[in-house]
Design a protein that fits this description.
Layout (H helix, E strand, L loop, with lengths): L1 E5 L1 H14 L7 E5 L6 H8 L6 E5 L3 H13 L3 E6 L1 H16 L5 E6 L13 H4 L7 E4 L3 H16 L7 E6 L8 E5 L2 H7 L23 H33 L7 E4 L6 E5 L3 H14 L4 E6 L1 E3 L3 H7 L5 E6 L9 H10 L7 E6 L9 H13 L7 E2 L3 E2 L2 E2 L1
Parallel strand pairs: 2-3, 2-4, 4-5, 5-7, 6-7, 10-11, 10-13, 13-14, 14-15
Antiparallel strand pairs: 1-8, 6-12, 9-11, 16-17
């Protein structure tokens, strides 16, 4: 295992390539690729990898990139791709298909603002618009976490109890193009962690079958229930994959959430992605000053880790949710989910949403301090507050 200065894109490309190579003794690997800023470096790195058994397929669109991955996965290959922003939007039809086919495809998504107007900087709206599709969603804070989570995603997706695709998300440019130290595991260790894929419902030449044909309502409803049951198993299987990862690589890739200083916290900040790094430093400073404040970093978004979240907020009186995303007319997506999580469970908990860092805006310690000051003075929740956004009417 070597330590190198690498970008998030390098981390993702390394993990995808090595995970694909680990399936060389089974039915190999296939990656459908199409470039889009700021994801392009990922597929460029994968395309340069010399796979023992498999191929990278350049195509004419993101829709086709997922289509190639679907076809490969149906054939039993380990399949993956990567995309971003409007590329994900163009891919949506096939993203949906991959989920309902129960194909363990892994996609690395570099979170970038959807356009128009065109914007290449970080915003989680591109992946969160897929929140109702049968995909597991994991959000990363660091380049090391991108690498580790991408490897873990294959084991999670391919577990017989799950068999669902996984999306691994990171912040555009803040992570994708920024270098930091990361440990790159050896191929032999990745081989040990990722067993050969044996997809139970793959197409076989001696067992002809139709995929995706017309079914009766009760059959389709049963399939949806099967997906729901698989989703309910994700938190437990994720923990098993996490423990196995630590056993092979001697490093914890992180669980569904990370609770920092929450055991006795009266105020809890909730963040995901790289914002968590900034928020943690603010919490650390305020803790040193004697304040009862903590942080929850959300890694798993789908399925939403309700039980873990309620447990981590056991002592909290106020929760401030920092959303780098926006649901039109509804506020931040994480805030919506967290409010629903505590409905009928905690009538005494004040949950306030804050929209910040949208469309690539910086989330500085000063902005987090502003959030902490507001939640501290607050007696009642209001509609989500826009923090650090300038309009003709002034700063909100």
């Amino acid at each position: 295992m070597s330590v190198q200065m690498i970008t998030g894109n390098h981390a993702a490309g390394y993990a995808l390539s090595a995970a694909g190579e680990a399936n060389r003794n089974a039915r190999g690997v296939v990656c459908g690729i199409y470039p889009i800023t700021p994801q392009t470096e990922i597929v460029e790195r994968v395309a340069s990898f010399d796979f023992t058994k498999g191929r990278v397929v350049p195509v004419e669109s993101e829709h086709s990139a997922m289509g190639v991955s679907i076809g490969a996965a149906l054939g039993g290959a380990r399949a993956f791709t990567a995309s971003s922003s409007n590329g994900i939007a163009y891919m949506v039809e096939n993203i949906m298909v991959a989920g309902y086919y129960r194909l363990p495809i892994v996609m690395v998504a570099v979170n970038r603002t959807l356009g128009p107007p065109w914007n290449i900087w970080v915003d989680q709206g591109d992946t969160l618009m897929l929140r109702d599709l049968p995909w597991i969603q994991l959000y990363c804070e660091t380049n090391q976490e991108v690498l580790d989570t991408t490897l873990l995603a294959f084991r999670l997706a391919e577990d017989a109890r799950i068999m669902l695709p996984v999306m691994v998300a990171m912040d555009a440019f803040v992570m994708s193009h920024t270098a930091s130290e990361a440990e790159l595991p050896e191929q032999k260790d990745i081989d040990s962690y990722l067993p050969d894929l044996d997809l139970p419902h793959r197409l076989r030449y001696d067992e002809p079958r139709t995929i995706g044909g017309l079914v009766w309502p009760h059959e389709a409803a049963r399939q949806r229930l099967d997906i729901e049951l698989a989703m309910r198993r994700v938190p437990e299987v994720l923990e098993e994959c996490r423990e196995a990862f630590d056993g092979v690589f001697s490093r914890d890739p992180g669980g569904a959430i990370e609770a920092f200083e929450t055991d006795d916290a009266e105020t809890v900040l909730v963040a995901s992605g790289s914002i968590a790094t900034t928020a943690r430093e603010v919490v650390r400073r305020r803790r040193a000053a004697g304040e009862a404040i903590g942080l929850i970093k959300m890694k798993l978004f789908r399925p939403f880790p309700e039980t873990a979240l309620r447990r981590a907020c056991g002592s909290a009186l106020k929760v401030a949710v920092l959303d780098r995303n926006y649901g039109a007319g509804m506020g931040g997506v994480f805030w919506q989910e967290i409010r629903a999580t505590f409905q009928r469970h905690r009538d005494d908990l004040l949950i306030q949403g804050y929209l910040t860092g949208l469309c690539g805006g910086d989330v500085t310690p000063e902005i987090v301090e502003e959030v902490v000051a507001d939640i501290g003075d607050r007696g009642q929740p209001t509609a989500p507050l826009w923090v650090g956004v300038e309009t003709a009417e002034g700063t909100h």
